[in-house]
TrEMBL record:
PROSITE patterns: PROTEIN_KINASE_DOM. Gene3D superfamilies: Transferase(Phosphotransferase) domain 1. Residues 1-156 form the Protein kinase domain. It comes from the Eukaryota. GO terms for molecular function: ATP binding; protein kinase activity. This is Protein kinase domain-containing protein. It comes from Friedmanniomyces endolithicus.
Length: 159
């Protein structure tokens, strides 16, 4: 899910820079600005809004936000439900980051904690909600729907 807000909408303008030719949703939850407070669980807010009960799917249960390993544990949660991270990430990562993602996948498999979000069962989340969230939570940014495509999603037509 993307945390749908202006900061997470990427616009591609025409050559003149005057007209938007494409828009895509992105999640900038792992980005930070020095001196500004950020929310490391920003990605989960849409899921929380749909699911309710102040549920934060990516918030690690046993690691506090000020722990140096907190970001890795957020990634573990993300990969548990929406992973694995795609091979296309290699173009964005340095060698150390690749090792971290590989270690996350090994940890998830060794602990047997993978739980695809599409298989989550709860009376408060419908199959339509899960389908919508899985569509916008594609791990590969290139597979995520454009804003225009997202607005055409059947989820918005539900009663």
């Amino acid at each position: 899910m993307q945390d749908i807000k202006p900061d997470n909408i990427l616009l591609d303008f025409d050559a003149n820079g005057t007209r938007v030719v494409e828009a895509k949703l992105a999640d900038c939850g792992d980005a930070c600005n020095v001196g500004l407070e950020t929310d490391p669980c920003g990605t989960a807010h849409l899921i929380s809004l749909i699911w309710g009960r102040d549920f934060h799917i990516f918030k690690p249960l046993k690691v506090s936000a000020d722990d140096a390993e907190f970001p890795a544990h957020v990634l573990i949660q993300q990969a548990r439900y929406f992973g694995p991270f795609p091979l296309s990430y290699k173009t964005f990562l340095d060698e150390e980051q690749e090792k971290i993602l590989a270690a996350i996948h090994i940890y998830i498999e060794e602990q047997g904690i993978r739980k695809p979000f599409s298989q989550v069962e709860d009376k408060e989340i419908t199959s339509e909600d899960k389908e919508f969230l899985c569509d916008i939570m594609q791990m590969d940014p290139m597979d995520r729907p454009t804003a225009k495509g997202l607005l055409k999603h059947g989820w918005f037509d539900m009663p």
